[in-house]
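Re: beginner question about structure tokens

> Can someone show what the tokenized structure looks like for a real chain? I only ever see the sequence side.

Sure, here's an example I had lying around. Input first:
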Amino acid sequence: MPTIENFNDESAAVSPFSPREELSAILKQESGRIGQVHDLLEQGKSQLEIAEELGIAPTSAPSYIADYRNAIDAILDGKVPSPSRVVPTARKLGSFAKRANKKLSKPAQELFSKNYDIILAARNSLEPTVGAYSEQEAEEAEVNEIGSLHVPGIYAFSYGHYLDYPVDLSTGNTLTKVGKADDVATRIAQHRSGVRTHIPEPLVTLRVYEVDPDTDLNGVERQFHRLLATAGHQNPHATSNYGRSEVGREWFLTNSDFLDQIAAALNLKTSFTN
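And the corresponding structure tokens:
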């Protein structure tokens, strides 16, 4: 079977794929979770099999896999998801465009642009009340699900503004807090309660990675932070207070896919996804 090359190169051969096949082949080569989910779906794996292979808790698997399936269907066929999932799907397509566009032949670029425009039009047509209701509904579901996670782990959260308007448009990376807790449910509830008076929007928990109780939680957090820093994902706004404390030390300029890859490398189970 032919392999995908950079068909924008004038010296490259004409793509042996149809535009849709080319998009599918590029998806298969994606190193992040969207590529893994696409590959496993093509293998005919069930939802539970995919969750097990990717280290996703069964309770989080339906929404996690559905979000990536929505993005895959949108990339390949311009399929519009339910109103509550249009915005995250548009985000994923924006990230895919930055990574993949230069690898696509002109016909594949045109197909992707057409499908992306369909999703953007669906996003732009959302009624503000639908968006507000979806956010409230999502926050309630998040609070209920995380409320049962009285486990040690690494958590990541951000705010809607940073998710809707990534700090680094070229990569899709945005400000995300990555911390640890002996009791994740209690710690996130404390964060959520603490921002009520000085943040104009609720926090959005993105991931919870469960750490075995017999494992050194502090050591896992140090590894997590070191890998983020090594990849250049440090918070550009972090400041040192003469060695006594550092503002924004646990905030990083990163994305959920990258966090998932670190968690996989550290053999952590994903207990919550958003």
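Each token stands for a local structural state, so reading them left to right follows the chain. Residues 19-126 form one domain.
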